[in-house]
Design a protein that fits this description.
Elements (H helix, E strand, L loop, with lengths): L8 H15 L2 H9 L6 H23 L5 E3 L3 H10 L6 H20 L2 H8 L2 H22 L3 E4 L3 E4 L5 H18 L5 H13 L48 H26 L11 H18 L4 E3 L3 H6 L5 H11 L14 H15 L11 H16 L3 H18 L8 H15 L1
Antiparallel strand pairs: 1-4, 2-3
């Protein structure tokens, strides 16, 4: 992923399909989480599809980048469990808070504040963000495949090697890796299809399928094909009610989280893929950030948590996606599932997770560019890289990176290395972490 490869329409379409297969789980997972906030599951399914299609297609047409935009994981949990259940907002007021965070996000983008923030990020932290994202999506992949599981003694552990799901996952992983090594076109898609076929016997011929039902479908399971769209959440946001003083911290956290999730994703993907302008800034950054902002604003209006750029876009980039056609393809693929969402169960998580694990391995390549023998660069970079997966949060990991870079340079006489914008961001990051 370190160099820009030539591309064509066929490659871009295959890349778009690969990215879609890596992140389609959001159509099921986002409604499952937001339903805990009292929102109708079917209404959130429709809203999720609308946000994913709108954001991704806009990213492709306007920003011309191969990056999918969809409701963000993590921020949807904050919506349901903190904003609604913690602060006591109704889900309509929480949608209003999402809307206002989108407005703030849009203003920051119009006045190029976000570009200034990105320019202030030290190069070593950019490389660390890329690696951290790689480790993060790899960890997500292992979890979704049920290969890494909860362990009361050590927090996490490996599932039984004898489980049919684990064996299927490992076999699919090796087959897909071999296809990549042999430079087979569409290797990741082929790997997902092969693993889907391998998963078919689980629960039918061997193993207990019920033991592996979590998140998206772990085993192949048909549950019908058609579902009527539900537009009940459209324009339900309580825009004025969400502006009450006690709810302002919610708007701030929404804004801060999507700000740094988006920046982290754009910087990380650009560093890993080479999709950068001559000055080293991620390609078409202003257009990409505006797209991110509009997707969040749109999400609040149609009934979902904030939209954001997806780290799973790395799957399509690895497949050769280099233009907006990749994002447009993925965006269009979301639309049919407003009517056919049950079809998502055909591709099991054990298959789609393979793409996340393998792409994660490619995203750590920028680590070779970090000056590991210079402690003031190495320590913040290391903290950024490991805390992204360890805290299960892009924004938390990069926040610690900013704070540690600033503090260490101030304590060791490197004040000139601290950009004023970075210093302000570090203070805001402290406030964010305090919430």
């Amino acid at each position: 992923m370190g160099s820009i490869k030539p591309t064509n329409t066929k490659t871009e379409i295959l890349a778009g399909l690969s990215t879609f297969l890596a992140c389609f789980y959001i159509i099921i997972v986002n409604p499952a989480i937001l339903a805990d906030a009292g929102m109708p599951f079917s209404g959130v399914v429709t809203a999720t599809v609308l946000v994913s299609a709108f954001g991704s297609i806009m990213m492709g047409i306007y920003a011309k980048n191969p990056i999918v935009v969809a409701p963000g994981m993590g921020i949807n949990a904050f919506f349901a469990y903190t904003a609604v259940k913690g602060y006591g907002l109704s889900y309509e007021e929480a949608l209003g808070a999402v809307f206002w965070s989108g407005v703030i996000f849009l203003l920051l983008s119009i006045f190029k504040t976000r570009e200034k923030i990105i320019a202030a990020i030290p190069v070593s932290l950019r490389h660390a963000v890329s690696a951290g994202i790689g480790l993060f999506i790899c960890f997500i992949g292992f979890q979704n495949a049920h290969f890494i599981v909860d362990n009361p003694a050590s927090l996490v552990g490996m599932a039984s090697f004898k489980d049919p799901v684990s064996l299927t996952f490992l076999l699919g992983l090796m087959v897909t890796a071999a296809l990549i090594i042999r430079k087979v076109s569409g290797a990741i898609i082929l790997g997902i299809l092969v693993t889907t076929l391998l998963a078919w016997p689980i629960g039918r011929w061997w193993g207990d399928a019920s033991a592996f039902n979590f998140g998206t479908a772990t085993v192949v399971n048909y549950s019908g094909f058609f579902a009527t769209p539900d537009f009940s959440l459209l324009l339900k946001a309580d825009i004025l009610g969400s502006l009450r003083y006690g709810f302002l911290p919610v708007i701030f956290v929404f804004t801060f989280t999507i700000l740094f999730d988006g920046i982290s994703t754009f910087v990380g993907l650009a560093e890993a893929s080479g999709l950068k302008d001559p000055d080293g800034i991620p390609r078409n950054m202003r257009q990409s950030l505006l797209t991110d902002a509009f997707a969040t604003l749109f999400a609040g209006l149609v009934g979902s948590s904030s939209g954001t750029a997806y780290i799973e876009s790395a799957v399509g980039i690895e497949e050769g996606g280099r233009t907006g056609k990749t994002a447009i393809t993925a965006g269009l693929l979301f639309l049919p599932f407003m009517f056919f969402s049950p079809l998502l169960s055909i591709v099991p998580a054990v298959a789609s997770s393979i793409a996340l694990v393998l792409v994660g391995s490619f995203m750590v390549i920028p680590l070779t560019k970090i000056e590991w023998k210079i402690p003031q660069e190495a320590i913040p970079a290391f903290l950024t890289m490991v805390l992204i997966p360890f805290t299960y949060s892009l924004s938390t990991g990069i926040s610690f990176g900013f704070i540690s870079w600033t503090v260490l340079n101030l304590l060791t006489g490197g004040q000139r290395e601290v950009n004023p914008i970075l210093a302000v961001i570090s203070v805001l990051a402290l406030f964010f972490l305090w919430q």
